């Protein structure tokens, strides 16, 4: 039976097509609709989608085979996505997965006979503060125990079971910039936001400031791009061509995916209007009239909350035509990804927005010159944009003074792993890592000793326990040969097997390499296989040199920074914890874990 | 115009020149896989990494356009290490099946490994298993995805050149695979080109696979005779090992770069249209006897029926030189019914390379002074008995006359051609001629470009080049025409025919000149 879109979906597709500049750009949303209707993406579906988008079918297959959220065979209705990444692994995620398998009587990649569930073992869902966690349907469930798994799966009828899990949200600041509404009741509603002075900064910007003035304030503020690279935001905006012949786009990077990071989700879920106001100010500053918000496909609920907030903003006139009566127009479109870490790389994000595989683009030209749909485009991270209202309201200098040299403001530090109180910590830039762990986040759980810290998400080089007296800002961490990255801090105590931690890391990079550049495509897979062999007790001494050989040949030699990010842990674990690797190789077993054979494959 | 330094040598280049091209001008070869001058830049193989002064990271030479003052290191030991590393990555999941790989001998992995590799391999793991092994994906191309290095040249070809969009890269990471949508065929008029541009043994030519090891091949430059585009080609022949391909000599045709005509490409019809060179050939002739009798018959005919009743049909498959000799010969005989007739009906056409005129030299024949005649007019002539004798050059007139038994009505039918057809058995005299691959000459394409082709093979059996047959026949007829080497004939042609004035083999060179 050929697949036919339902009448309702055909209408939706017409609407979707109107929203995008090209037909291909509607690829991901149309595939999401198709999967919702059909349960999975069959060849018939691909054919129908190709027709609807007027594309060669091979382009549809490229997308469906690249993005992991598209199911390619008949499967259970509700996905269970058990996280297997580092923070969850540290807190027993593998055991949870085993329990789910046992309970449902199915393996990873299989569905229950009643068609209710399908089970996947997935890379980081960016909810490390509630590890071990999993996603069931649209919702995240954390702090999982066998009992909790029982409760969720037994009671699941398509809606959330129980209340969302709460982790720590703290800030020593009297008035935090980014997290002040995170615990406020109804914080997502525009009334709440307006009551607290919301959209005043945007009004000030649009009514009293020239776009260039805002750019100058941002430059003064020392606001850095909080997506991971830390590029000065004002400078980035300055790269736009002065002579504008084409429309300018803002692409909001909400494709949070760096393992250990969950800060953007908090803004999306708990203060969406702060982001919208930031987008509005930014678009005015760069004179853009259309912003795309690219949200990772698993963030269904955050996307829903943001969409509600966007709808409210339209109805209150802070989005749409003639905002604040100034004649300035702005449209915001939310675009859901489909499961690919690489789409957080800014040019891969653009490709994905255009309906293609997330292959990072060659640079130059940089997106500010040739970006989305060949037009000048600025790509900014959610948290970066959320700083804009404060910068406009209180001035660039105020913001700059909050942080440290060259690093303005505060930052949402995501802390997970073996700390007493995992969660979100809003602290001034440059706060010491040691303070963050021991003063704010409750130190190491159960009185154990600290062994290692990943300071900036999985792509950062690991630090040993005696290396944590360092400021959490871009320059200080660079000095100790690691990076602040997305400020996802994963803390590991003395019980952690560093071979296993590296194995989880290597598996992640092998799974997420887009496959475009030879060194990264081949290097990540090779590296994973070698670490796995060492982990399984079949290592050889020369493997340690091979690991460093692979890492150094990947770094700096590819189109995007993914390989550089992979190379950081790849070259730091086997060096900083060499004795542990040597022990694994020599003895063929692990002193810390007696059951390394349970390492979850797949 | 930017001036830059590569390996200490200074060069000034046109704006828009990339580092690979600039280096090439200096005689410095920068290795690459994904780069192809006819395709967009992908930059994915990373083989062309070079170092640039003041750049913290190596840069890729294919994407980098030359700028004033650049200082490039393209050959140091450090750069060599980068290449070695890329090769090692490309080879870890590549099978070691060179002994059974058709690409062996012209494989860029082999070549670059010998130049930049030769490392002590460190890979000790299981290779990634991929889906396609020796799988035919279309009528002309086989895919072996484990050999593929994912350079994406073939995908870009189908997106940018053939615009047929059949190929894609599926999955991701080290499981990425080039492929075709299941159930679809890789079948477009230019499909064979992906084999040429595949730098490794992933895409091979089903027609050529396992016919002959490439190191036994010899090559001659030629021009495709399949249509009036005149794509520049190479004819690859196997002369020494006839047992490899049942005695057939031409193993394959490959496009040869000509910016003005076909760039790097050719169509499949042309590419696989070479079989006639070794098959169904007319091979036997005792020339002395045969031409003596032919001359006698011609003279007898002229005496009996007069020259007006004799029709000569020259062919746009003949070279300019041959047409010129034919013109002089038939003029010397006093024949006036000499016209141009295509042996091939008009066919497909597109806006790229394929032309509906399936002959290489219609423009040349017209420039030399021959006018077209229609098969209808000929048929009428035979029916009305105004044509009683005929000299055909390769045209299968019997088939052209569509079973009307008109050839039976001819009192004298001379057929001069290279291959068997239904006219051969009707002809009173059959003069076996050489194919274009077995001789030298020039064709004039649809745009008026006069292009040389070279001899790849000796004429098969007793066959002779058309000009040589005409020269010998003219002697037998007692009206000898001068016909030396093709070059000397061309020089006479250039002197006699205004359109060709000033041209010579030397000025034509490899790329030809437009008249």
Describe the structure.
The complex is a heterodimer of chains A (602) and B (515). By secondary structure, chain A is α/β, with parallel strands linked by helices. Chain A contains 25 helices and 15 strands. In chain A, helix 2 (27-38) runs antiparallel to helix 3, helix 9 (200-208) packs parallel to helix 13 and helix 17 (388-394) packs across helix 18 (396-402). The model of chain A has no long low-confidence stretch (mean pLDDT 96). By secondary structure, chain B is an alpha/beta fold. The two termini of chain B are 33 Å apart. The mean pLDDT of chain B is 96. Chain A binds chain B through residues 43, 46, 56-59, 61-62, 65-66, 340, 357, 362, 510-519, 521-526, 529-530, 533, 540, 542, 546, 549, 553, 556-559, and chain B through 41-47, 49, 56-58, 63, 82, 85-86, 88-90, 92-93, 122-126, 128, 149-150, 165-176, 180-184.
Task: Please describe the topology of this protein.
The complex is a heterodimer of chains A (602) and B (515).
Chain A: H1 7-19, H2 27-38, H3 43-53, H4 57-66, E1 78-83, H5 86-90, H6 93-104, E2 117-122, E3 134-136, E4 139-141, H7 146-155, E5 168-170, H8 190-195, H9 200-208, H10 211-221, H11 233-238, E6 249-254, H12 263-270, H13 272-286, E7 290-295, H14 300-315, E8 320-323, E9 328-336, H15 346-353, E10 377-381, H16 382-386, H17 388-394, H18 396-402, E11 410-417, E12 423-428, H19 433-440, E13 450-454, E14 463-464, H20 474-479, E15 488-493, H21 498-512, H22 518-535, H23 542-554, H24 562-576, H25 578-587
Parallel strand pairs in A: 1-2, 5-12, 6-7, 6-10, 7-9, 11-15
Antiparallel strand pairs in A: 1-3, 3-4, 8-9, 11-12, 13-14, 13-15
Helix pairs in contact in A: 2-3, 3-4, 9-13, 9-17, 10-13, 10-18, 12-13, 12-14, 17-18, 21-22, 21-24, 22-23, 22-24, 23-24, 24-25
Chain B: E1 3-6, E2 9-12, H1 19-25, E3 49-52, E4 59-60, E5 71-73, H2 77-92, H3 108-116, E6 135-136, E7 141-143, H4 153-161, E8 167-170, E9 177-180, H5 193-197, E10 203-205, E11 218-223, E12 232-237, E13 250-255, H6 268-271, H7 287-305, E14 310-314, H8 320-332, E15 338-340, H9 362-368, H10 375-383, E16 389-393, H11 397-400, E17 412-417, E18 429-432, E19 441-444, E20 449-453, H12 466-476, H13 486-496, H14 505-508, E21 513-514
Parallel strand pairs in B: 1-5, 14-15, 14-16, 16-17, 17-18
Antiparallel strand pairs in B: 1-2, 3-4, 3-5, 6-7, 7-10, 8-9, 11-12, 12-13, 19-20, 20-21
């Amino acid at each position: 039976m050929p697949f036919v879109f339902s009448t309702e979906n055909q209408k939706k597709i017409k609407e979707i097509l109107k929203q995008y500049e090209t037909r291909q750009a509607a690829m991901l949303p149309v595939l999401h609709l198709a999967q919702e209707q059909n349960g999975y993406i069959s060849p018939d579906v691909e054919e129908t989608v190709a027709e609807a988008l007027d594309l060669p079918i091979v382009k549809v297959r490229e997308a469906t085979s690249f993005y992991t959220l598209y199911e390619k065979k008949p499967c259970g209705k509700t996905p269970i996505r058990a996280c297997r990444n580092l923070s969850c692994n540290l807190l027993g995620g593998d055991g949870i997965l085993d329990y789910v398998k046992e309970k449902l009587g199915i393996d990873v990649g299989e569905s229950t006979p009643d068609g209710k569930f399908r089970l996947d073992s997935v890379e980081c869902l960016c909810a490390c503060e509630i590890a071990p966690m999993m996603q069931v349907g649209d919702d995240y469930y954390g702090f999982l125990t066998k009992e909790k798994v029982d409760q969720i799966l037994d009671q699941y009828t398509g809606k959330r079971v129980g209340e969302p899990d709460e982790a720590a949200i703290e800030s020593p600041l009297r008035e935090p910039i980014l997290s002040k509404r995170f615990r406020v009741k109804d914080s997502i509603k525009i009334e709440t936001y307006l009551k607290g002075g919301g959209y005043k900064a945007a009004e000030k910007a649009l009514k009293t400031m020239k776009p260039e003035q805002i750019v100058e304030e941002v430059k003064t503020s020392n606001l850095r791009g909080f997506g991971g690279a830390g590029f000065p935001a004002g400078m980035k905006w300055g790269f736009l061509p002065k002579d504008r012949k084409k429309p300018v786009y803002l692409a909001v990077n909400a494709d949070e995916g760096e393992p250990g990071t969950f800060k953007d989700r908090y803004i999306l879920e708990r203060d969406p209007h702060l982001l919208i106001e930031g987008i509005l100010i930014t678009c005015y500053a760069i004179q853009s009239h259309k912003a795309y918000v690219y949200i990772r496909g698993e963030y269904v609920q955050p996307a829903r909350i943001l969409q509600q907030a966007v709808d409210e903003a339209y109805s209150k006139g802070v989005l749409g035509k003639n905002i604040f009566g100034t004649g300035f127009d702005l449209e915001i479109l939310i675009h859901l990804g489909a499961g690919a870490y690489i789409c957080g790389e800014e040019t891969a994000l653009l490709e994905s927005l255009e309906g293609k595989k997330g292959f990072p683009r060659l640079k130059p030209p940089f997106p500010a010159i040739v970006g989305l749909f060949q037009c000048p485009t600025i790509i900014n991270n959610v948290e970066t944009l959320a700083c804009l209202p404060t910068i406009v309201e209180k001035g660039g200098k105020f913001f700059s003074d909050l942080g440290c040299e060259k690093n303005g403001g505060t930052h949402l530090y995501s802390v997970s792993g073996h700390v007493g109180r995992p969660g979100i910590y809003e602290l001034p830039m440059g706060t010491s890592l040691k303070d963050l762990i021991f003063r704010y986040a409750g130190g190491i759980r159960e009185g154990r000793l600290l062994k290692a810290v990943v300071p900036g998400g999985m792509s950062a080089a690991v630090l040993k326990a005696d290396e944590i007296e360092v400021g959490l800002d871009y320059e200080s961490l660079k000095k100790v040969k690691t990076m602040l990255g997305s400020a996802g801090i994963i803390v590991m105590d003395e019980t952690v097997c560093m071979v296993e931690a590296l194995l989880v890391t290597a598996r992640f990079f092998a799974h997420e390499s887009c496959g475009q550049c030879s060194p990264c495509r081949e290097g990540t897979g090779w590296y994973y296989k070698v670490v796995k062999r060492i982990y399984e007790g079949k290592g050889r001494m020369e493997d340690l040199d091979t690991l460093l050989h692979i890492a150094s040949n990947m770094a700096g030699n590819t189109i995007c920074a993914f390989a550089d990010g992979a190379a950081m842990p790849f070259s730091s674990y086997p060096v900083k914890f060499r004795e542990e690797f040597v022990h694994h190789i020599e003895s063929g077993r692990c002193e810390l874990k007696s059951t390394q054979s349970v390492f979850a494959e797949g | 115009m930017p001036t830059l330094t590569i390996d200490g040598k200074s060069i000034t280049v046109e704006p828009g020149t990339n580092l690979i091209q600039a280096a090439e001008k200096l005689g410095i070869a920068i290795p690459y896989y994904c780069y192809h001058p006819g395709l967009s830049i992908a930059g994915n193989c990373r083989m062309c990494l070079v170092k640039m002064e003041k750049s913290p990271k190596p840069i890729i030479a294919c994407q980098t356009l030359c700028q004033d003052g650049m200082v490039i290191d393209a050959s140091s030991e450090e750069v060599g290490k980068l290449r070695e590393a890329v090769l090692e990555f490309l080879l870890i999941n590549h099978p070691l099946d060179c002994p059974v790989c058709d690409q062996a001998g012209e494989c860029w992995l082999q070549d670059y490994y010998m130049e930049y590799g030769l490392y002590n391999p460190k890979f000790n793991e299981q290779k990634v298993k991929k889906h396609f092994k020796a799988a035919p994906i279309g009528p002309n191309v086989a895919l072996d995805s484990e050999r593929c290095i994912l350079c994406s040249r073939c995908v870009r070809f189908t997106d940018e050149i053939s615009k047929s969009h059949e190929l894609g890269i599926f999955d991701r990471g080290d499981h990425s695979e080039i492929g075709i949508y299941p159930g679809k065929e890789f079948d477009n008029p230019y499909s064979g080109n992906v084999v040429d541009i595949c730098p490794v043994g992933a895409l091979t030519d089903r027609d050529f696979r396992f016919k002959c090891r490439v190191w036994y091949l010899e090559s001659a430059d030629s021009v495709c005779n399949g249509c009036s585009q005149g794509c520049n080609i190479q004819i690859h022949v196997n002369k020494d090992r006839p047992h490899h391909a049942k005695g057939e000599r031409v193993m394959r045709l490959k496009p040869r770069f000509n910016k003005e005509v076909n760039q790097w490409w050719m169509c499949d019809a042309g590419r696989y249209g070479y079989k006639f060179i070794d098959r169904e050939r007319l091979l036997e002739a005792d020339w002395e006897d045969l031409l003596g009798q032919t001359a006698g018959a011609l003279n007898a005919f002229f005496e009996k029926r007069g020259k007006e009743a004799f029709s000569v049909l020259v062919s746009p498959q003949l070279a300019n030189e041959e047409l010129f000799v034919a013109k002089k010969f038939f003029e010397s005989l006093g024949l006036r019914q000499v016209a141009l007739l295509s042996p091939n009906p008009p066919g497909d056409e597109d806006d790229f390379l394929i032309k509906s005129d399936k002959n290489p030299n219609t423009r040349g024949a017209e420039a030399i002074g021959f006018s077209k005649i229609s098969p209808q007019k000929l048929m009428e002539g035979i029916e009305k008995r105004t044509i009683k004798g005929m000299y055909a050059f390769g045209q299968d007139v019997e088939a052209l006359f569509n079973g009307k038994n008109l050839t039976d009505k001819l009192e004298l039918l001379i057929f001069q051609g290279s291959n068997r057809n239904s006219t051969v058995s009707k002809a009173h005299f059959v003069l076996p001629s050489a194919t274009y691959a077995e001789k030298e000459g020039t064709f004039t394409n649809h745009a008026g470009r006069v292009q040389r082709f070279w001899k790849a093979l000796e004429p098969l059996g007793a066959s002779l080049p058309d000009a040589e047959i005409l020269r010998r026949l003219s002697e037998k007829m007692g009206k000898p025409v001068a016909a030396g080497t093709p070059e000397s004939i061309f020089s006479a042609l250039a002197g006699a025919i205004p359109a060709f004035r000033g041209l010579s083999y030397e000025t034509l060179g490899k790329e030809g000149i437009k008249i």
